[in-house]
UniProtKB/TrEMBL annotation:
It comes from Ancylobacter tetraedralis. InterPro entries: ProX/PRXD1, YbaK/aa-tRNA-synt-asso_dom_sf, YbaK/aa-tRNA-synth-assoc-dom. This is Ala-tRNA(Pro) deacylase. One of its GO terms (molecular function) is aminoacyl-tRNA deacylase activity. The keyword Hydrolase applies. The lineage of its organism: Bacteria, Pseudomonadati, Pseudomonadota, Alphaproteobacteria, Hyphomicrobiales.
């Protein structure tokens, strides 16, 4: 049994710190690189302030359906996700909406602006389905916040999958539907 496994009967634990995340990654033998920077709240902030960090950069959507099923959808930062049609491929019970900041902190232990593919480490009850977009997974290296938005951590694509599995989250790798660009010219 992995040290990441948790019983549904276990008392709620405080969310992990970035240092604890790095220790767990090291326990798994996963090498990462981390660069600190000013707080980043949006993709636009990230693009202007992060500097030149190679690899795929993530945009993370914390979503829920009407039955309370939760999804963390991780796509490449430029992806324009078609939220109206995402529920079908995911097998969600209804159309999807964004989860509240309170639900995000309760389940994934992070604040808005720091949502990350690493956050399932705090979902010890396995409430969230993690979805990794195939376009993001084309990158050998993937960049994510390490539970805070003041740093960016680079992890190998296969190591990210291995990490998620170790947290008890078998990631769903799929082509996330995109919105069509329908800008009309005058």
């Amino acid at each position: 049994m992995s040290s990441f496994d948790a019983s549904a009967d276990a008392p709620a634990s405080p969310p992990l710190t970035p240092e604890q995340l790095f220790a767990r990654l090291a326990e798994l033998g996963i090498d990462t690189r981390t660069i600190t920077h000013p707080p980043l709240f949006t993709v636009e902030d990230s693009q202007t302030l992060r500097g030149d960090i190679p690899g795929g950069h993530t945009k993370n959507l914390f979503l829920k359906d009407k039955k309370g099923n939760l999804f963390l959808v991780v796509v490449e930062e430029e992806a324009r996700v078609d939220l109206k049609n995402l529920h079908g491929p995911l097998g969600a019970a209804s159309k999807l909406s964004f989860g509240s900041a309170e639900l995000l902190e309760e389940v994934l232990g992070v604040k808005p602006g720091a949502v990350t593919a690493f956050a399932p480490i705090n979902d010890r009850q396995g409430r969230v389905t993690v979805v990794l977009d195939t376009e993001l997974m084309a990158f050998a290296d993937i960049n994510c916040h390490p539970l805070v938005n003041t740093a960016t951590t680079t992890i190998g694509r296969d190591d990210l999958v291995r990490f998620l599995r170790a947290t008890g989250h078998e990631p769903v790798v799929m082509a996330v539907p995109r919105r069509a660009d329908t800008v009309e010219q005058a």
